[in-house]
Amino acid sequence: MKKIKCLVIDDERLARDYIKNYISKIPELELLGDFNTPLKATELIKSGKVDLMFLDIQMPDITGIDFMKSLTRKPEVIFTTAYQEYALEGFNLSVVDYLLKPFSFERFFQAVNKVIDKLEQKNTAGEDQEIIPQAQTTFADTYLTIRADRKFYKINFDDLIYIEGQKAYVSFHTSKKRITAIASLKELEESLPKEKFIRIHKSYIVAIHEIMSLEGNMIEINDTELPVGKSYKDAVMKIFGV
Questions:
Q1: Which of 44, 70, 98, 127 gets the most CB atoms within 10 Å of its CB?
Q2: Do 109 and 223 belong to one domain?
């Protein structure tokens, strides 16, 4: 896989420096530049050379959210911010991940791996679209099977923690590994056992037994916080007997 070309946009120099340090430790990443305002990065982004942005939200000239909305040609985005209250809107914009400052290299690397998986899936689909048919998900009583990375995977329902929709792709987060494949979140919602799984957001289906807590519009599941969409909130509240 070719290197992922990325930008850092943050009005704080120290924040840019430690993100750049993290980037330097990951061979798959190539830093094209860092900017203290999104406006200085606009032309480079429009050129189509940028694969990934590490984007702050609260900045003087324009917020990262408004900047992202203004782009017609969007690279993948990982928000880096000190403000948790923007998480739901970030997920609604289909960002790859949302990192709360200060974040560890381990958490940063986890977010970057999501981008790597996503871009590899896109490249594989583009290369093989004429010889590999659209992946199909099949369901049994206690597991599903899915094709990804030229393999067939058997995913036991008891191992499945949550499912993350990413446009044409879906990531299955299990207790053993994460598997990204071409799949339909709607098909999964309709076919997974209702007593075991619940859709909480347009981008997320979660295992009910893995839900730990609900605070506002965020649930905690397996040490991860995920947003709850307005239209799914009542169903989630019923799990807690509310």
A1: 98
A2: no
Query: Structure pTM?
Result: 0.55
Run of H or E residues at 19? helix 13-24
Query: C-alpha angle 102/108/113, rounded to 5°?
Result: 165
In angstroms, the CA 143 to CA 197 distance is 13
Q: What is the CATH number of the domain that holds 163?
A: 2.40.50.1020
> How would you classify the pairing of strands 52-55 and 4-9?
parallel
Instruction: Convert the pLDDT of each residue in 27-78 to its tens digit.
Output: 999 999 999 999 999 999 988 899 999 999 999 889 999 999 898 888 999 9
Cα-only R_g, the chain = 18
d(C-alpha 181, C-alpha 126), whole Å: 13
Label residue 143 exposed, middle or buried (CB < 10 Å: 0-12, 13-18, 19+): middle
Q: From CA 67, how far away is CA 206, in angstroms rounded?
A: 30
**Burial letters for 87-122: b for 16+ Cβ neighbours within 10 Å, e otherwise?**
bbebbeeebbbbbeeebeeeebeebbebbbbbbebe
Whether 10 and 107 share a structural domain: yes
What 3-state class would DSSP assign to 165? strand
